[in-house]
Amino acid sequence: MNNFAYQQVGKAKDATAILREDKQAAFIAGGTTLLDLMKTNIEQHSQLVDINLLPFKGIEQTSDGLRIGALERMSDVGENRLVLEQYPAISESLLLAASPQLRNMASIGGNLLQRTRCGYFRDVAFPCNKREPGSGCPAQKGDNRNLAILGVSDSCIANSNPGDLAVALVALDAVLTLENAKGKQRRVPLTNFYLLPGNTPHKETVLEPGELIVAVTVPTAAHARRSMYLKVRERTSYAYALASAAVGLDVQGGQIRSARVALGGVGAQPWRSLEAEKILTGAPATEATFRAAAAAALQGAQPREHNGYKVELAKNTLVRALFDLTAKV
Amino acid sequence: MTNDSFTDQPGAAPDDGSRRSFMKQAGGILGLALTPPFVSQAERLTALSRKVQGVSEMRLKVNGTVRVINAEPRVTLLDALREYLDLTGSKKGCDLGQCGACTVLVDGRRINSCLTLAVMNQGREITTIEGLAKGDDLHPMQAAFVKHDGFQCGYCTPGQILSGVACVNEGHATSDAQTREWMSGNLCRCGAYPNIVAAVREVQQKGGGKA
Amino acid sequence: MNEPNFFESPGAGGSVGQPLDRVDGHDKVTGKARYSAEFPLPGLTYGVLRTSEIAKGKITSIDTTAATKEPGVIAVLTHLNLPKLAQTPNTPEGKKAIGAPMGFLPLTSDEIHYAGQPVALIVADTFERATHAASLVRVQYQAAQPIASFLDAKAEIFDPLKVQDGKTPGHTRRGDPQAALAASAVKLKATYNHAINHHNPMEPGATTAHWEAADRLTVYESTQGVTRTQTALSQMLGLPREQVRVVTKYIGGGFGCKGSCWPHTPLTVQAAKAVGRPVKLVLTRPQMFTSMGHREDQTQTLTLGATKEGKLTALIHEKTSTTSPWDNYAEPNSRIINLLYECPNFEAKYELARANVMTSTFTRAPGEAPGSFAIECLMDDLAYQLGIDPIQLRLLNYAEKDPSTGKPWSSKSLKQCYARGAELFGWSKRNPKNGLTRDGRHLVGLGMATASYPVHNSQGTARVRLYADGHAVVQSGATDLGTGTYTVMTQVAADSLGLPVDKIRFELGDTRLPTAPNSGGSVAAGTVSSSIYMAAQDVWQKLTKLAIQDKRSPLFRAKPEDVINEKGRLVLRKDKAKGEDFAVLMKRIELTDIEGTGNGKYGAGYESGMAASPADSGHKDDTAGHSMHSFGAHFCEVRVDPELGTVRVSRWVSVHAAGRILNAKTARSQIIGGSIFGIGNALMEATHRDDTFARYTNATLADYHIPVNADIPEMTVEFIEEHDPYINAMGVKGIGEISMVGVAAAVANAVFHATGKRVRDLPITPDKILSAGVAS
Predict the structure, then answer these.
(1) Residues C428, C487 within the same domain
(2) Same domain, C738 and C752
(3) Domain termination site, one of C602, C631, C646
(4) What one GO molecular function would you report for this record (chain C) (predicted)?
(5) Which of C172, C690, C692, C704 is in Cβ range 3.0-4.6 Å of C348 for a Cys bridge?
(6) Chain B CB contacts of C669 below 8 Å
C-alpha cells in the first residue's frame, strides 16, 4: 500500500469535504474491501477518511420500511431479529456471505461497494477495461468460468458486485440514501445504483465523488416477509456464489399475488428479473410457473466458452428457491 | 492503569527519524490528546480528527496492556502485532482476509487483523492468542484443542482458537453443523476440522469460557 | 536383516502407540511456537519480491529510481546488481550439485521464462515500505508469446525417456500388454484430466537470512528439510557445509512444496549479503502460486483388459503433462498402477511438453494420488460393467506379491483393511445399482478405493544423551510439519530408554543436530524413530560395557550379549532379577551423562544392510528382497444435488495398515488431514492458467478453494496392526502420503454410484455435474 494519510472524522460534512478537496482520498469503514484493493495495487489513495464515527447506524422499522444505517456491520444486520423475521432474504444473504470475522468488520455501505473477483481485474499484470479503460478484456476468451452471463458487454463480463446482500436488496426494492459534499441527501433505488458495463466498465455505480452511503431502506411487503436467499458455491462456505437467487413471494390460495426475483453470480450487476416476476405474478405457484419464470430470467444470457453452465445453474437455483419458499409456509 | 503504558522497543519501527509524522511536526497534538491511561470515545473523536501522516505514535491496548508503537497509518493491525510488538502468535496466511489465520478479538468480536489498520484500533480492547491463557492455566478452548488434537502444523491454530472462543460466546456452537459453518472462516490446510469441531463442542458443553 | 535391532513393543506403561497429546501442543495453542519469519533479529530488514508480469521474453530495462527514493528503502536488487553466486542450478551439473528442484534461478539474467518470476528484490526497514517500493520498480520487457500448457497448439509433446529428475523411467513394460489386450474379453479405456493443484500450506514460504560473519550464515527457513536446504545453500554460496546453519523449529505445513530449496531462499541470502543486515522475506499468498512448485496439469489415459470374470489381463497407462523450460518433471502416476493389482501385462509411457511455467514438484502422494484416481475409477467401471461388487473385484485381483517386481511383500494387510472398512461403513447395505438412492433432494452415493504408498529408501542419524539423574536429551535434525515428529520421537525415546516421556527433551530442526532426511515421501517417522532407537541401543551397549567391567556391578564379567535392558535396567537375559538401574551404575562410576548415536535405515537400506545415501534416493527402493508398501482403503458417502451440481461428502471411513503406529492420536489426525486434502483435490482445487498469458487467474485463497470446516463430516479412522521386521528398526511405514491416495477415486466412485454419471475431470465442480446431465 502507498503511504496514505489517515484521519477519523465525526461529521459527514467533514468527511465529504476532504474528498471534495482531495480527489485521491477515500472513505474507510470496515476496510475489508478497500484494504484488499489497496494491498493488491488495484487502488491507491492519498488519504483514508475513517467514517466509523458518523451516525449512520441503526436497524429499525420506519414508516418507509426497514432502515439500515450504512455503518452497521453485516453480522449485526444478519442476526437482527427484525431483519430475520420480516426480511429473511436479507438476513440469509448476509449470513451466507464471507466469514464470521469479515461479517463482523464489513459495513453495509462497504458491502454494496465491493468489486468483482474477476481474476483479470484482481491481478494488475493483466489488461482490464474496468481497471484501465481501453486496455482490453482477456476474460472474454479466457478464464470466464465464474463470470457473468447477463448484462455483459464486449468490454467486460465481470460480475461487478460479487456479493450476496446486493442481490437480496435489489430483489426487495431497496433504496439508498446518499449524501454529497454539499450535505445534500438523495434517494436512489438500488436497481438504479449499479451501472451496466457497456463501454465504460470502470463506472460501476452512480455514486458521485465524495458521496456517502447513509442508509438502506427496504419497503415492508408481504413478499419481503416471505423471502429467501439461496446460494450455490463450489465449497459449502466462505466462497462467492456461482449462482444465487433472492426471491420473495406473496402467495394466497395457491396464486402468486406479488413476486420479487433477483439473481447473483450471473449478472454484470446484481440482477433483478422483472421478466421472471411478470410471469410469476398472478400465476399459480407451481413448478411449471417457476420453470417459465426461470426461463424468462435467463432469456438474454450471453455465455462465453466456460460459463455456459451458469444458464442451467441459475435457472435451477431460481426454481429451487421458489420451490423452497413455497414449501416453507 | 496508569502504569501499564510503556514504550516498546522499536523492533521493526522505521529507521529514519526524518519522516516523523505530521503530528510530531505539528507539535505533538496526538501525543497530547492521547494522554494516558486511555482515551474515551469522545476524546478519541477530537484527537483523531487530526490527520496522521508518516510515522506516528500509536497506542494499542493488547491483552490488557497499553503498548506504544511508532508506525505509519498503512500498518495493519496484524503487522503491528507481529512486526512491531513481537506478538507473533497472530499469523499471516494470506494478508487478504481469505484464510482467518490472523483472527484476533477486538472488543470481544472476532475479526481478521490483516484487513484493519492499527491506527483504527486505538482505544479498543485487542485480545490475541498470547493473552488468552491466565498465567499457566490454559483457556478451556486452548486445552480442548490440545486434548482433541485440533491442529497439526499449528499455524492456523491461534486464529482457530480465538474464532472458537468467539463462536461459543456468540452462541453459534449449539450443534456440530452450526459449529462447522461458523468455524468456516478459518482455513486449516492440515485438515484438522473434525478435531476442531470436537474441541469447540467440548467447550460449548462445559459452558463456554469467556476470553 | 537386522532382526536383533527390531524394536519390541514395551509392556504395559509403554508410550509408543499411545494417544499422547502433542508435546509441542502447549506452545502451539499459546502462540509461543516460533515459525521461520518470527525470529526478531537485531537490525532485521524486510525483503519483498517484485515478480514478472509477462511469462516469456526479456527484460529490456529496470528503472529503480522511484523505488530507491522511497523512505526506508535500503536496496533494490536485480539481475544487474545481486551478488553473484558461486554456483547456480542453471546448468545440469549445478542443478544436481545443489539438489535444486528447478534448473533455473531468477535474477541471474534478463530472461523471463514464467509469469511470477522474480525480477527484483527490494529491501527496506519495514515491510510496508519494501512492499510499496516493489510496486514502484519500473520494468520494461520485450515480451514473446508464451506457451501455457501441453494443451497449447504450439506446445511440442516429447518423449522424455525419464521423468522426475531421472528417478522414474519414461517407459515401463511387463509382458505383452498389446497382445493381451487384444485377446481380452473385456476392454475399458478412459481418459482422466487433472487441474493444476497448489500445496498452499497455511504458512507461506519464509526465509530469514542472517550473515553472522562474512563467511558464516544462519537461515531460519520454512523447509521440510534443513539438511537439504543447507546442501543447496552451501553449494550455491561455495561455503563449507558447517558454515551454513539452517533452523526450522516450527513449520506451518508443507505438503511437498517446502521439500526443496526454491529460488526465494538464495535470493534472500544474497540480499542479506548485499545490505549487510539480516533480511526476512515472506512470500505473499499470490506469490506462493509461482514460487514453490505445484502439481502439474496432466491428462492420463488408462486402458484395461480383463476376462469376463473380472481378472485383469492388461493395463496400459499413458500420461501427458506440462513441464518447465528446463526440467523433465512429471509425477510418477504409473508406479501405483503397476503394482496395485495382479496383472501379468503392463505398460506405461510418459510424455511431456515444455511451457512457460515454473517446474512442478512433489505434492502430497506425488504420482500415487493421480495414478490411483485412474486405476481406482477404472476398476469401479469394470465392477459395474461386470456386475461385481467393487470390493469383490479388488479381491479377485488381489496381488499376493508385488506384480511390478515379483518380490514378496514385507507385509500387506489390505484384505483386513477392506473388511474392517466395509464393516465400519456399512458397505453391505449399499444398493449395488447406481443412481437409485435418494434422500430428499439429494442423490446419495457410496464409493470406495484402495490406497497404497511405497516405503522409500532413506536413512538418518540421531543422538541420545542420557543423564544419570534420569532425563535425556534426544536430537535429530528432522522437521515437524505438524505430523507429530516432536511427539512421536519423544515417545520412541522414552520407551527406548525406559524413561517417562516427561523426562525426554527431543530437539529437531537444526543442521547442528545429527542429520535426518527431509520430511517427505512418508519417510520421517520411520527413519527418525529408528535412528533414535538405534542411538538408545548404542547407549545401552556402552553402559553394558561399563557395567560388566565394574566389579561393583551385579553384571560384572557377564557377556555383553547376555545383557539386555528392560525399562531402564540392565539385566541378564536369563535372570532378569540380576542387574541394576542405569542411574545407579552411572552415579557409582561418577558418570554424569553418556551419549549414543544411531543410524536409522529405512526401506531397502535397512533390509540389505547397506548405507542408503542420499537419503531420498527413491529409485533404489527395489534393491531389497521385499517389496515394502503400506495399504489401505477409503470409503466415502456423497450427497449430490442434481439440479445445483453440488457434491458434499457426508460420511467417511479410512482403514490403513502402515506397520507400527507410533501415536494413535496424531496418526488419526494425519489420516483425516490427508483425506481432507484429497477431498479438496476431488471436489474443488484447481489453479487456472490463462491460455494466452500463461498466468494464473485465481492465485488467492478466495479463488483457489481448499476445503473449509463446513465441507467435512465426522470421519472414522482405524489402523490394522502390523508387525513388519523388514522395513526398519521400528517397523514404521509412514502415513503422510497414503492418507491421500485413492481419496479422489473414492469420492468420484461415490458420485458415480449416486448419479450413474462418471466424471473423470478433477475437480468435480458443479459445472461438471450439470454438464454430465445428472438432472435429466
Answers:
(1) no
(2) yes
(3) C602
(4) iron ion binding
(5) C172
(6) 149, 152, 190, 192, 195
Same-domain pairing of C436 and C488: no
pLDDT at A188: 98
Q: Would you say the ipTM is above 0.90?
A: yes
Chain C residues near residue B193 by CB distance under 8 angstroms:
672, 676, 707-709, 711-712
Helix (H, G, I), strand (E, B) or coil at B203: helix
Residues 6+ apart with CB under 8 A from B27: none
Ranges of each domain in chain B = 6-131, 140-205
Beta strands in C504-583 (DSSP E): 504-507, 563-566, 569-572, 579-581
Those of residues 115-134 in B touching chain A at CB distance below 8 A are 115-117, 119-120
Confidence category of residue B30, pLDDT binned at 50, 70, 90 = very low
Question: How far is C-alpha C190 from the chain's CA centre?
Answer: 28
- Min Cα separation B51/chain A (Å): 5
Q: Which pTM does this prediction carry?
A: 0.96
Return the CATH number at C755.
Answer: 3.30.365.10
Q: With contact defined as beta carbons under 8 Å apart, do C766 and A317 qualify?
A: no
- Do C633 and C683 fall within a single domain? yes
Q: Is the pLDDT of residue B170 over 80?
A: yes
Q: How far is B182 from chain C (nearest CA, A)?
A: 8
Query: The domain containing residue C758 runs over which residues?
Result: 364-456+623-771
> Cell for A144?
470466464
Domains located in chain A, CATH noted: 1-53 (3.30.43.10), 223-327 (3.30.390.50)
Query: Catalytic residue at C331?
Result: no
Torsions phi, psi for C132 (to 5 deg): -70, -40
Angle at C374 between CA C371 and CA C376, to 5 degrees: 100
Most B CBs within 10 Å, among C20, C22, C24, C30, to test the B interface: C30
Strands C216-221 and C244-247: parallel
Q: How many residues does chain C have?
A: 776
- How many Cβ pairs closer than 8 A exist between chain A and C? 102
DSSP per residue over B71-129, as a string? Answer: E-TT-BHHHIIIIIS--TTS--S-SSSSS-TTEEEETTEEEEGGGSBGGGGTTSEEE-G
**What is the reported pLDDT for B5?**
40
Instruction: Report the number of distinct structural domains present in chain C.
Output: 2
Q: Which of C602, C633, C654 is the last residue of a domain?
A: C602
Give yes or no for a contact between C718 and C595, defined as CB atoms under 8 angstroms apart.
Answer: no
C504 and C425 assigned to the same domain: no
Q: Is A21 exposed, middle or buried (0-12, 13-18, 19+ CB in 10 A)?
A: exposed
Lowest mean pLDDT: which of A157-166, C31-40, C617-626? C617-626
Same domain, C485 and C591: yes
Residue C164 has pLDDT above 90, yes or no: no
Closest CA to C355 of C294, C283, C300, C302: C294
Structural contact between residues C148 and A18, judged by C-beta atoms closer than 8 angstroms? no
* C737 and C646 both lie in a single domain: yes
C-chain residues near B154 (CB < 8 A): 24, 27-29, 33, 250, 252, 482
β C504-507/C472-475 pair status: parallel
Angstrom CA distances, C180 to A222, A260, C340, C401, stand at 71, 64, 18, 21
C681 touches chain A (CB under 8 A): no
Q: Does domain B140-205 match CATH 3.30.360.10?
A: no
CA distance B135 to chain C (A): 11
Return the CATH number of the domain spanning residue range B6-131.
3.10.20.30
Cβ atoms of residues C601 and C612 within 8 Å: yes
Model confidence over C305-320: pLDDT tens digits?
Answer: 999 999 999 999 999 9
Please tell me whether residues C413 and C443 are part of one structural domain. Answer: yes
Determine the Cα–Cα distance for residues B66 and B43; give it in Å rounded to an integer.
17
